[in-house]
């Protein structure tokens, strides 16, 4: 499955896949107002149109059910990505968590240069790590210049990040340690 074809409407609307109709409506109204082309502070027509499309899809039971099938396929693909990029380290090991994040972003960019980024919630879910911890480590990686925010809102590894991932001998495949020479 190509991830550049799929837009995660739950991520876009910042919703749980278990959100009820009332929550979807409330969040849609908030985001539509925020990104509406008439809002002088946050106007973003492309984002607004995506939000409207997400709302239309998730608010009708039939289209939501069809979307949920695609959503599950999307996550099955992402889980394969995560299994290639990580090893299950001991909880609380910050250095390993940062290396796993870099590794995940490295593999994503290597696999798909047209869509090299991942969302924060995606990464937290793929690494089975609390979002708050992922946000902390992403802050660090961005401050070092190893990760950047793309125009899509996703985060992607930079050239400096690739160098760091290779330098730290990040585990790309849990069964195979890849060593790089500089």
Describe what this molecule looks like in 3D.
The protein has 182 residues and is mostly helical. The protein folds into two domains: 62 residues, Orthogonal Bundle (Helix Hairpins), CATH 1.10.287.110; 79 residues, Orthogonal Bundle (Arc Repressor Mutant, subunit A). The chain has a two-stranded antiparallel sheet. 25% of the residues are buried.
Essential attributes:
182 residues, mainly alpha, Helix Hairpins, Arc Repressor Mutant, subunit A, 2 domains, two-stranded antiparallel sheet, 8 helices, 2 strands, 58% helix
Compact description:
The protein has helices at residues 9-12, 21-35, 45-59, 61-85, 94-111, 120-126, 131-143, 159-167; strands spanning 147-149, 155-157. It has 182 residues and is mainly alpha-helical.
The biggest beta sheet reads: 2 strands, antiparallel
Number of domains: 2
- What is the β-strand count? 2
Span between termini: 34 Å
User: CATH superfamily assignment of the largest domain?
Assistant: Winged helix-like DNA-binding domain superfamily/Winged helix DNA-binding domain
In terms of DSSP E residues, the strand content is under 5%
| Helix-strand string | HHHHHHHEEH
Helix content: 55-70%
The CATH topology of the largest domain turns out to be Arc Repressor Mutant, subunit A
- The average pLDDT value, as a whole number, equals 85
């Amino acid at each position: 499955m190509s991830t550049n074809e799929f837009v995660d409407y739950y991520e876009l609307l910042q919703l749980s896949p278990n959100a009820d109709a009332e929550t979807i409506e409330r969040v849609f109204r908030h985001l539509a107002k925020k990104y509406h082309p008439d809002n002088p502070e946050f106007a973003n027509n492309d984002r607004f149109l995506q939000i409207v499309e997400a709302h239309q899809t998730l608010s009708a039971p039939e289209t939501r059910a069809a979307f949920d099938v695609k959503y599950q396929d999307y996550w099955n693909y992402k889980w394969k990505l995560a299994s290639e990029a990580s090893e299950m380290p001991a909880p609380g090991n910050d250095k390993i968590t940062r290396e796993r994040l870099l590794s995940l972003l490295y593999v994503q960019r290597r696999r798909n240069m047209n869509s090299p980024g991942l969302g924060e919630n995606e990464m937290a879910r793929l690494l089975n790590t609390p979002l708050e911890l992922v946000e902390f480590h992403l802050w660090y990686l961005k401050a070092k210049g190893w990760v950047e925010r793309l125009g899509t809102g996703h985060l992607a590894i930079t050239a400096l990040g690739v160098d760091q991932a290779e330098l730290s001998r990040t585990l790309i495949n849990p069964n195979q340690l890849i060593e790089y020479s500089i």
